[in-house]
Amino acid sequence: MSSPFYITTPIYYPNAAPHIGSTYTTTYADTVARYHRALGEETFFLTGTDEHGQKIAETAAKEGVEPKAFVDRISERFRSTWQELGLTPDRFIRTTEAAHKHAVRHFWQLLHDQGQIHFQDYSGRYCVGCERFLTERELVDGKCAQHQVEPVLRTEANYFFNMAPHMPWLIAELESNPDLISPARYRNEVLAMLRSGELEELCISRPRERLEWGIPLPFDDQYVLYVWLDALINYLTGIGYPDDPDWERRWAGVHHLIAKDILKPHAIFWPVMLHAAGIPLYQGLHVHGYWSMDNQKISKSLGNLVDPLIMKQKYGFEAFRYYLLREMSFGLDGEFSEEALVRRINADLANDLGNLANRSLSMLERYFEGVVPESSGASELSQAAESAARQLDQQLRGFNTQRALIALWELIGAVNKYIDTQAPWKLAKAPASRDQLGSVLYECMEALRVIAVLLEPFMPETSARILGRLGDPAPGATLHEKLRWGGLVPGTQTRKGEPLFPRIETS
Ligand code: MSP
After folding, report:
1. pLDDT of residue 454
2. Helix H or strand E segment including 73
3. Across the chain, what does the average pLDDT equal?
4. CA atoms of 361 and 496, how far apart (whole Å)
5. How far apart are CA 110 and CA 219, in angstroms?
6. Around 165, how many Cα atoms within 13 Å sit in the side-chain half-sphere?
7. pLDDT value of position 259
8. Within the chain, what is the greatest distance between any pair of CA atoms?
9. What pLDDT shows up at residue 118?
10. 109: CB partners within 8 A, 6+ apart
11. The predicted structure's pLDDT at residue 301
12. Which residue, of 208, 304, 361, 478, has the fewest CB within 10 Å?
């Protein structure tokens, strides 16, 4: 039984509307999911909202509404925004769903029955922003490095999950599988955390008298689960755990995509939880950096959020999507600016891609009334196309959208150069060169078709627009079939259409 390709995003806190950060991760997952679908693989893409915990309860209280009414409203904004942006999750999960509560209670009851949970007093420094107790090492000048606030000292009796017995296993997994966490810098960071030996016990509960808004522990209803230990389980609930007999098959192909801010829960708590419950570890944890603006972190508290719907209105989501996927180096932080976005639109989209489509379709219209000519069989560009497809495949399987796009743009550059050196406008002047002109233009159109096919996961609408102008060759075929050189049938009527990406004038 083969397992599907299963990709997840973090489930976002619905305490503010979607912004560039959540849009980036979801678009990135969408791109990878689209690629696997194009390959003809069974694919499952999960995203959703993480709705319990103190932070949500506090934000709802500030707005004077019940937590459930509050999360209903904001969760719906996430769902509808992804829909409006054309993103294609197969399931949008909410942690307030009955199915999720059932899965979570089943999971923790299992660990409790196995004697892996105990009850004791605990004192520690708690950061409400992180929703967890911080260790001394995580403090910078006594403050949470991420939220810039001093954590509060707290003592209370709670339930604990003893992670210590699982640590040697996790270290061995990370050492023997260098690709488990990528890029390598994050794997090294996790190994360093693990080797420091300070992560032994995980507090899994919050007393209900202090926090009502959570999933009650199945073995003590005076306590609710700490939100992270409810949230992580969404990745199992999303595929039908524990009751759907197919969940294990689906689980076998799972890849998680996150940003570096939530590395520890995903790289340490989650593997240990899975191991404790006898569930296999994920296939990969892929970690991207953080977007900042004017060298400041983009965050709800700073209020410098970039609204994806406004970006869509101003530039079109395809262009914004391209910018996000192209601009950020995998694993490193990126700086958002509208000037850089406009530069990319003008250089990569209007100039390189737009011009290629525009001039090759225009020449075909001018010299052959838009009808695809016969080719003499010489395929000078087919090698460049094959090499681009191979590199793109390798990079996307490694979750590197930037390098995949660089490979694709190299092909675009090669075709533009081919046009310049072949100079079809000169060939058109000599009637004796008619066949050669036909072959050159066939090469260009075929290369344009392959480029549009490879572009689909990144810019689905632009891909469809280009393929539409080429008479929609081979709709429904798998990527490998579509990539076969010669797919464009001579005699096909093409359409030039409007410029794909008009230049944006900046004064
Ligand atoms: N609810 C938890 C995740 C639970 S997953 C079991 C959470 N939510 S969050 O709303 O804070 O989302 C964090 C995630 O949003 C990051 O890991 C990243 O995917 C995305 N981003 C939010 N801000 C971001 C940037 N400024 N830059 C890049 N991605 C960021 O943590």
Report:
1. 98
2. helix 67-84
3. 94
4. 5
5. 10
6. 8
7. 98
8. 92
9. 96
10. 218, 219
11. 67
12. 478
Specify the pLDDT at position 161: 96
- Would you state the pLDDT for residue 302? 67
Ligand 1 closest atom vs CA 234: 6
The model's confidence at residue 10, banded by pLDDT at 50, 70 and 90, is very high
- CB of 269 within 6 A of ligand 1: the answer is no
pLDDT digits (tens, 9 = 90+) for 109-133: 999 999 999 999 888 888 888 877 8
Ligand 1 centroid to 480 CA: how many Å? 34
Reduce the DSSP state of residue 366 to 3 states and report it: helix
**Residue 25 CB–ligand 1 contact under 6 Å:** yes
Query: Which amino acid is located at 34 in the chain?
Result: R
Residue 209 gets which letter from DSSP?
Answer: T
Structure tokens at 318: 């395809």
**Per the structure block, which two tokens stand in for 169?**
């296993």
Residue 258's DSSP bridge partners are 287
Binding site membership of 50 for ligand 1 (Cβ less than 6 Å): yes
Using the mean position of ligand 1's atoms as its centre, give its distance from the Cα of residue 19 in Å.
10
**Structural domains present in the chain:** 5-315 (3.40.50.620), 338-482 (1.10.730.10)
Count CB atoms within 10 A of the CB of residue 501: 23
Task: Judge whether residue 408 has pLDDT over 70.
Answer: yes
Write the burial class of residue 383 (CB in 10 Å: 0-12 exposed, 13-18 middle, 19+ buried): exposed
In the 8-state DSSP scheme, what is residue 164? G
- The answer to whether 157 and 122 are in contact (CB under 8 A) is yes
Beta sheet of 296-297, edge-to-edge order: 296-297, 291-293, 334-336
Q: How far apart are CA 237 and CA 298, in angstroms?
A: 30
Tokens 């008298």 identify what position? Answer: 209
